[in-house]
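User: I'm preparing a small set of examples for a lab meeting where we compare how different chains pack in three dimensions. I only have the primary sequence for this one, and I'd like the structure in token form so I can line it up with the others. Please keep the answer compact; I'll paste it straight into my notes.
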Amino acid sequence: MNVKKDILRRATLASVAIFLFALAIIARLTYVQFFQKQNGRLWKDRITQYHIKRDTLRATRGNIFSRNEDPLATSLPYYYVGIDPCVAKTDSFNKKIDSLGILLAQKFGERSRDEYTYMIRKARDSGRKYVLLSRKKISFQERMEMQKWPFFRRDRRQGLGGGKFDAVYQRYHPYGRMALRTVGYLNPETSRGFVGLEASFQKELAGKDGVGLVEELSGGVRMPLEDGSDIKPEPGLDIYTTIDVNFQDMAETALLHGLEKYQAERGCLIVMEVETGEIRAMANLTLKNGKYVENFNHALAGGTDPGSTFKLPTLIALLEEKAIRPDQMVHTGGGAVMYRGRRISDTKRGGHGSITAQQVFEKSSNVGVHMLMSNFYNRPETYCRYMRQFRLDKPIGLQLRGETKPVVPNPQSPGWSRLSLSSMAIGYELKLTPLQMLAFYNAVANDGKWVQPMLVKQIRRANEVVKEFEPYVAPDPICSQSTVRLAKKMLEGVVERGTARKSQSPYYRFAGKTGTAQRLINGRYQVGKYYTSFIGYFPAEKPKYSIAVVIDTPHGASIDLLYGGSVSAPVFREIADRIYAYDVPMHRPFASTAKPVRPSSRGIKAGFADDIRTISTELNINTPPSPDGWVKAEAQGSKTQWVSQPTQSKVPDLRGMTLRDALHLLENRGFRVRFEGYGKVVDQSVPPGDPLPHPRKITLTLRQTARPDTLAVVLDKKNQSGK
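Assistant: Understood. Below is the structure token output for the 723-residue chain.
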């Protein structure tokens, strides 16, 4: 019995001891948290201010590059500026804190010098390890400038240090709004791709986020911490497109000229390489609030009735069926005919009379096509089978989301009527995009081989190619070689004698077809509203580029001025002229009895001396002796002299330089650069030769000046040669 009492007594004492020990621990914790101070601050306040947790470390988004390897979309670092005020030694801190306050007040202007110094001193006295100095973000160039300041220098032998730059990344388009709808942009709320390549290649561009310790400071600021357990983020992959920035610039300029001339509501222009299907340019413009902006991809998603450009597949089907010959006569009468209660008419008053099938196509006669289509009216399925053979009923599958599915009806389709075939033959009751029609015309230019249009060439991780996209060529040609030859002759005839004859070039031959269709709005065709187009290729003898131009809903003084031959064909000619001048290897060789003239260096404006020497050697151009580094051409009588550009203490003369050269030169000098327009530098906001300004900001004005001059030189040489 005594043993039991002894055990009970000992257990009670142990329980009391444990309780008292736990109570002591709780009391100590309460005291430390709510009453004990360190550096004059309660621990509970420090815990409220400093909160450490595991969080997502965002991966750097990949870049989108042009065919020229120029960045079309990239992520640039911007920085929040902070300081750990406890790092510096006391003597050094007291000597330099006023200087830092002055610099911060000048830089950010959010506080006075005294307010900055007070804020930093107070944080140091309280033991705070981080102070956010401004809610404004700074650029990389500004960071380089600030790294010369006290507390931010990398050399800490003076007992200073503590300056911090916390990076955040923002998407930047070096070429402004060029090809914006094709390149795409991000959803500002989610930072995910919203449209264009940014959305279509979201997974590849986004990379993989990491996980790490993040300290949440007051004001919502996050500061990554290193503890050795981080999962590092993997940067996104880089996308290399087929877009050529020079072609894109030319395309947007030519399209804008056409739209402005006729005050059209919208339009698009596509340039594609015939053999590979690589898209060199894709321009889309829409009139909004009095300005043309790129806010919708009409080339990819603008499905509508193509109009007379669809007469090409109709005529090729008839030729393949051996139902017609180009030289057979067609009686179009007075230019109008009734068919099953509907009037079919030509635009020419009085009609074309008796003409050949070739002329039916050249003059784009609706009545003539109707007469030729009598071969298919009793067997519509045969005609529709050819449309499938031409791949017009299938999406092209471009590496870009948002393609409108084509609508090419057949006798089993809902809404098919006894008038459907006659409508389809001249480009109505259909829904096709400019890119889908261009793919078909490109197949004709490519000797019947259908090539899938391509926008992305490679995906890379740094310099390593992760994925290569090869051109896809359909296994079966769209038609026989004999039909291709006849079709090409018909397309050439449109330009030489037909509806596009006013747009002929005396320096190269091109082929194509004009198109005009009434606009279908809310199920009704609108009088006076037209969709005009021209699709073709050049040079006609050996096609290298195929081009589609659409000018939608133009406005003109007379109805005759609103057709594709008057509206869209001149735009084709303009872009073809520019490409022809730019793509020198495409020029036809010509014989000349004139004495050979070695090119002069007078056409070279400015640039990096090594680059200019390399280019001059390749082009067999005489070059005067030049200094190294950046140079500018100056005419001295009949000779050209290259003079060195001041780059260290004075603002260089940037006029005549490409944007890339100007940016390289300026950013190495710490400038923040803005630019307007496209082409070469024609003006700069800070005059050349001035001392370097503070702050170092400059605006460049760019303009296309070289290409028309280059074209004139090329054409003058051909004139001199007798070609």
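A couple of notes for your slides: Confidence is low (pLDDT under 50) at residues 590-603, 705-723. The domain at 54-241 is CATH 3.90.1310.10 (Penicillin-binding protein 2a (Domain 2)).

User: Perfect, thanks.
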